[in-house]
Specification:
- There is one protein chain.
- This protein is α/β, with parallel strands linked by helices and about 350 residues long.
- The chain has 13 helices and 11 strands.
- The strands form 3 sheets. It has a 7-stranded parallel β-sheet, with helices on both faces. The protein has a two-stranded parallel sheet with strand order 7-9. Strands 8-11 form a two-stranded parallel sheet.
- Helix 1 links the parallel strand 1 and strand 2 (about 25-30).
- It is globular.
Amino acid sequence: MARVFVTGGSGFLGSLLLAQLLADGHAVTNLDLLPSAIAHPNLDSVVGDIRDRPRLDALMRGAGHDVVFHCAALLAHGSLSPKELWSANVEGTRILARAVASAGIPSLVYISSNCLWGRGFDRPVREDDPPEPCEIYGASKCEGEKILAEHAADFTTTIIRSPTIMDEGRLGLLGILFEFIAEGRRVWVVGDGSNRYQFIYARDLIAAMLLAWQQGKGGTFGIGSDDVGTMRDSYAYVIDRAGSASRVASLPRLPTTVAMTVAHRLKLSPLGPYHARMIGSDFVFDTGRIKAELGWRPTLTNREMLFRAYRYFAANRDEIAARRGVSAHRQAADMGVIRLLKWVS
């Protein structure tokens, strides 16, 4: 049994990670702004902020933690101010890293993001491609990577750059897509829908996190599914498996991205600058390094994991609509002006 410290363990990915760690017999401390839905004798779940250094010291010093899984992050959705997001994601990571070093914890695994880039690529993205974030969330993740690099002499850091994480229960912006499918409305792609945008199955990501810690492998790794099909094909697969009357339809790229940008500036849409730039673009990580160095392999394709997430939504739609006080990925995002598109779909 190891002693494991998790930040953000009450969120979508964090909850699945907690369940896996507990099933493996480890003793886990979870620190999150929200309470955990998991109760277990080997889980100490604390409601608190990673920016609270005295609380971190009290939880870490002398506790003998073997690893920290840093999953906590605020997203650029809803009414959250840029100042608060930056403080939580950047200063929070800075304070956490100092506390980990002070406590002598030997390993930290950090979940970074494909939002480090705000443009598409015509080839798989490698770990040595310089980040080019276009909005604050991606910039905050980039800054977090830099902060952890400053602690190379204090503990081993593994950075896993993750695309959109999928599994049963994943909602957020996907909740909007799933509502369209559940109601048999047209599902929209921008352009012809031939772009390939990679996802990662949550349990495959957790497997990589555990491998990195157990093997003591530091460094930076891109992760994602294999056999990434087009967005049009992925949507069509879910529609077919769901038995929905929906069909995939196209929106013209330039007018759509202009409209998305204006709606965001007017605070009428949950879709930000990253989505406007990437909605019709290709983005796939080169996963050669993580496969070679960790022996990791993905188990699900984009369309398979997207259908699993939809199936959960369809089976739990009423309960999901009633949720309050849960993380952003555990509730459907507010449609805003997208509701107008729904009415004509």
